[in-house]
Amino acid sequence: MTRVKITATGSYAPERVLRNSELEEMVDTSDKWIMERTGIRERRIAAASQTASDMAHEASKRALDSAGLSPSDLDMIIVATVSGDMPFPSTACLLQHKLDIKVTPAFDLNAACSGFVYGLAVADSLVRTGGYRRILLVGAEVLSRVTDWEDRTTCVLFGDGAGAVILEGTDEDRGILATHLHSDGSLGELLSIPAGGSRLPASRDTVAARQHFIKMRGNETFKVAVRALESVALETLEKAHVDPSQLSLLIPHQANLRIIQATASRLGLPMDKVMVNVDRYGNTSAASIPIALDEALKGGRIREGDLILLEAFGGGLTWASALIRW
């Protein structure tokens, strides 16, 4: 075994579509304002009964079906999420139960919007050790449950969904070529959910102050994100001795079209080499890259031998990238 490759993908999005026109009736905003600043037209919202593990289950079944595998063929489950079903047990353990697997190790990974790429690096390392043959990695989020629908600056951004991949070792000269992970906890307050943990346990005061919802200092986060994404992308490309012009496709975290465009410009990439679906899903945090990857693959935008760069930025602050030869 020389590398670890993605052998199958799957994704799921809830049925309910929340369009900008509906948000115009909820808060002081407009379709024009949202489109100009974010590029988002609509987002998917989970049904009241749907959880992160439910959506992870649907995405996982689709990835398993695509690979022609059964759940018992898996050696490990990793779920990247910040909006899991509950603090514990982990959403990965709940997913394991829904897949009807026994014993298989399962755990959650929290790196916010960078979670899926962090998960790729972890799974890559674990498979390379030889201790695990096949890993299911899922990004699943129900951000609508932690979105403040009275805050016009954030409620227009987020959506729900899940994406899954199956990773296996290979002797072929393809798969994950390089990954880089970074974080800066000193900037954590730029993007966070302040309450609900040991610092600010749930109370009448924290609920009244709406501290259990996503808080973001948008302008500052934007500036850091663009710089960080350019830096980590170049770092990963340089490690693999790949020039940006050699990329077949950039699949960025789908947070904001302006961030995506700025990053592509800094890398010298035309937008026809960039996967964009933020207009239809909004920011689905750890689920955004696997959903976009699944759509790109099924849409014929990825072919064998292509060089694909994944990059993400999120709360923590965290940022990460991964280069893959398909």
How would you explain this protein's 3D organization?
This protein has 326 residues and is of the alpha/beta class. The protein has two domains: 3-172, Peroxisomal Thiolase, Chain A, domain 1 (3-Layer(aba) Sandwich), CATH 3.40.47; 176-325, Peroxisomal Thiolase, Chain A, domain 1, CATH 3.40.47. The chain has helices at residues 20-26, 31-38, 52-67, 91-98, 115-128, 204-208, 218-239, 257-267, 278-281, 288-298; strands at 3-12, 16-19, 42-45, 76-80, 106-109, 134-142, 160-170, 175-183, 191-192, 215-216, 249-252, 307-314, 318-325. The strands form four sheets. It has a five-stranded mixed beta sheet with strand order 1-7-6-4-5, sandwiched between helices. Strands 8-13-12-11 form a four-stranded mixed beta sheet, with helices on both faces. A two-stranded antiparallel ribbon has the order 2-3. Strand 4 (76-80), helix 4 and strand 5 form a beta-alpha-beta unit. Helix 3 crosses helix 4 and helix 7 (218-239) packs parallel to helix 8 (257-267). The longest helix has 22 residues, at 218-239. The chain is globular and about 55 Å long. The mean pLDDT is 97.
In short:
With 326 residues, the protein is α/β, with parallel strands linked by helices.
Task: List strands and helices in order, with pairings.
Elements: E1 3-12, E2 16-19, H1 20-26, H2 31-38, E3 42-45, H3 52-67, E4 76-80, H4 91-98, E5 106-109, H5 115-128, E6 134-142, E7 160-170, E8 175-183, E9 191-192, H6 204-208, E10 215-216, H7 218-239, E11 249-252, H8 257-267, H9 278-281, H10 288-298, E12 307-314, E13 318-325
Helix pairs in contact: 3-4, 7-8
